[in-house]
Amino acid sequence: MSDLDRAIETLRAGGFVALQDSPDRENEADILLAAEHATGEKVNFMATHVRGLITVAVPKTVLDALDVPLLAVRYPVPHAPRFTEPVDAVAGCTTGASAFDRAATLRKLADPEAQPQDFSRPGHIFPLMGMPGGLAERRGHTEGSIALAELAGITPVIAICELMNPAGRMASGDEVMQFARAHDVPVASISQIIERQQAAG
Question: What confidence tens digit (pLDDT) does each residue in 143-184 have?
């Protein structure tokens, strides 16, 4: 089984996947989790061991249906993701901040029956809008996460968290592989996803 196929199977089954960016871009890795499989324990693992900001990649069509608007872009920097209004699930949450509350919000965002009134705003989970053109428009972790979910045949709403090293800097290269080995996390790259999409036509 290829690295990409293992990542697809793991994401589908509710496990963690490391997605590497291009070396000539950010050259970093995000840890992914299908939002429909989010639990308090899994979100706590991301907060404790992955350490970056926990966000969620969401297609524009879903955000539009849930009336979740983009935040205004000011003083933009290269490769910046498109942040939206942060949300909390109304049901099953107290303050919205705990790992279990954030898991409830992630699951609700992945719920095809969710309605705009199911979310209070502002909240503790920032959805990131996937560009409508996908990886052909922007080769970022947001679009790569959605594309990987589509390859896996699951709801394309994916929790993502930037991998930081123990010193508090972004992990890259060997640090990513060490984390993957320590936690038995498959590693895929955005370039592999693009190659698979192209091969599929």
Answer: 999 999 999 999 999 999 999 999 999 998 899 999 999 999
Hey, what CATH topology would domain 3-200 get?
DHBP synthase (3.90.870)
pLDDT in tens, 92-103: 999 999 999 999
Q: Strand pairing partners for 187?
A: 18
Residues in the chain: 201
Tokens of 1: 């089984």
| 3-class SS of residue 22 | coil
The three-state secondary structure class of 128 is strand
DSSP string, 173-201: THHHHHHHHHHT--EEEHHHHHHHHHHH-
State the pairing for strand pair 29-34/158-163: antiparallel
97/188 Cα distance (integer angstroms)? 30
- Token couple for 115: 């309605």
Structure tokens of 62?
Answer: 């879903």
Residue spans of the domains in the chain: they are 3-200
What whole-number distance in Å separates Cα of residue 182 and Cα of residue 193?
24
Residue corresponding to tokens 């009134």: 117
